[in-house]
Amino acid sequence: MNRIQTLMLLSASALMLACGGDEAVQSTSNLGDNSPLGQAGVVDETSDPNILQVAIGSKDHTTLVAAVQAAHIEHVLVNAGPLTVFAPTNAAFDALPEGTVASLLEEENIGTLTTILTQHAAPGSFGPEQLRKEARKGRKLYMATGAYLDVRVDGDDIYVNECKVIGTIQTSNGIINVVDKVILL
Predict the structure, then answer these.
(1) Are 63 and 154 in contact (CB under 8 A)?
(2) Domain regions of the chain by residue span
(3) End-to-end CA distance of the chain
(4) 3-state DSSP call for residue 159?
(5) 77-114 tens-digit pLDDT
């Protein structure tokens, strides 16, 4: 090793020690699953709430929020959008066969869980009027998984793949349509 290389190595070592060297590396390697995922970790109490914030604040969507967190897709629900989410209630998850939700939350089933959750999201804004328009035109709704779901109207009721829309919430980055069933294809 020549004199210049030795000086560079000593300078780099001194810089690492002065900046915390091992501690800095250790602190970034310990971020793990508790670290915020992109914009999902931003705390903003002045802007209108986004889809994730509304879901987190809903006592009727705790299972959905737990599933989104288990699948590590929180960041999707805070993106600029517009995005439409068909959000099953806790009762919708409870109606699944016993053990289904617990099984989906297991680490080895996260891929399946992510697919199921993603088939509840459509790019674009689809509130009640837009859903009625899609149904009148006989169009199917394109979902984030690439699947197409049927939209139909029966009197005042709107159904997406036989899931009844029981409420709609406008958010800063899209629309939440609360549904009474979990969409399974």
Answers:
(1) no
(2) 46-179
(3) 64
(4) strand
(5) 998 889 999 999 999 999 999 999 999 999 999 999 99
- CATH code assigned to 46-179: 2.30.180.10
98-156 pLDDT tens trace: 999 999 999 999 999 999 999 999 999 999 999 999 999 999 999 999 999 999 999 99
Q: How many helices (H) and strands (E) does the chain have?
A: 8, 8
- Cα-flanking dihedrals φ and ψ of residue 21, to 5°? 25, -100
CB 151, CB 139: distance < 8 Å: yes
* Cα–Cα distance measured from residue 103 to residue 96, given in angstroms and rounded to the nearest whole number: 11
Give the integer Cα–Cα distance in Å for 44 and 9: 44
Q: Which two tokens stand for residue 183?
A: 């969409």
